[in-house]
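Ticket #336: bound-state structure for manganese (II) ion.
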Amino acid sequence: MTTTITLRPGADAAGVRARLAALGLWVAPCVGRGGDTVAFTAAASSQAVPAHVLVDVPGVADVLAPASPHPRLDAQSGRPVVLQRGDLRVAIGGGLAPVLAAGPCSAESPEQVHRIAALAAAAGARLLRGGAYKPRTSPYAFDGHGPVALGWLREAADAHGLLLVTEVLSEADAEAVADAADLLQVGSRNMQNFALLRAIGRTGRPVLLKRGMAASLAELRASAEHLLVAGAADVVLCERGILGADPETRNTLDLGGAALLIHVDGLPVIVDPSHAAGRRDLVVPLSRAALAVGASGLLIEVHDEPGAALSDGPQALLPAGLDQVAALFAARGVAR
Ligand code: PEP
Ligand code: MN
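RESOLUTION: The complex was predicted; output attached.
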């Protein structure tokens, strides 16, 4: 979005420009009919500088910015998203300590979900992840056990003192998932499924919105606004990798984009290195990088028998890998 900085008549345009540059604003001059500089427009890649700081620059008359296309999302800026169930309370973002969400890709059986929930809890996770409804590229692939698996996930989360994040795949399932889960996940493939966003928003619950694998940050913010307009309590964003140039790292984990959303927009962003990398050996290093960037949390896939996993086995951390992720949180002083 372009900000326009208008100058007072007779202002020293070069001096104003230098002051703006010192604030991190890269500007282009706008000339009036007389050929003199009457305003500057700020380049999109400029740092975000509050309007009141710009107005205080000597020689500046006013600062004009287009109205935001996502006022509800902007209103979330700087504050955490709070999930609450009974005595369990988990706050995500707002500069608070990062939160770990861990679990299997798919909920495969009650026993598998319980075993992995126990591992997640022992690693300090606050949320259990796991899919009852799975979006799969192949129509022949396992696509989730459906409603019964929501029950397994809820029971396992409760048994281990965890909250639950799980995906809503269709409008018809939104209410059922809202009854079972604490945070409703929109998958990457559905980021711009606006009918689904509306149905999820109508549940009034907090949402984890995964970035589409070919979506811009502006499109991600717009989808978050769709959810909020429809009634979602709050939105947590999720960076899970975008299409890149090299299949060896599957999707490119856009930590620059995550940093912008976190530090410039002030929004909660959970980073999912599992789906970004698609391979286990990169998950711990990418987790370390995401925490260093200031991620509000990590979403990590775990399996105790990945070779037999019904989905995403190659990227699932083994219990020892999850311990390494737990150590990253401990090293940052995050209490279990
Ligand atoms: C998932 O979290 O299991 C998943 C399918 O993720 P994504 O939508 O990011 O591919
Ligand atoms: Mn998965």
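RESOLUTION NOTES: The chain has a mean pLDDT of 97.
TICKET STATUS: resolved
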